[in-house]
What does this fold into?
Amino acid sequence: MVAGRNASGMASELGSMKVTEQIDAMRALGTDPTKKLVTPRVVSTVVMMFFLTIISDLVGLTGGWICATLLLGLDSSQYWSQAYQNLVNEDVTMGLVKPLIFGFIIATVGCYYGLSTKGGTQGVGRATTQAVVAASVLILVVDFFVTRLIMAWFGSLV
It folds into this structure.
């Protein structure tokens, strides 16, 4: 969902700037568009994906606690102790490394397609669609390889 929302937003913003020749004007004035337009988007996406993941994990744990106590009648201390005991380094590492990589992919793909837009408003629409598709596919592929790498690193790969 983040890939679709952010990659398309970045591609459409930068694409419309490219089509209206605002990026060419920046270059003519001696400003590096990559430094002013791409770098802040990449850094902010990476940082916010990290914190969004932490918030989502906390919301998921709280939702599990509510369901366990209200629907299943478990004791609160039992839920939290079991959740803590079942947490392993591999899960924490994957949960905190993957968002950094995914944020970089989302921002880079969105900016790439935005800056390579051609053909007016139709080109902006095409670039937006291509950015969403490319970011989503890349995330699926990279997710597989990063998971395999981290599992091999922790020695849990059979």
Notes: The CA atoms of residues 58 and 64 lie 10 Å apart. The chain is about 85% helix and 0% strand.
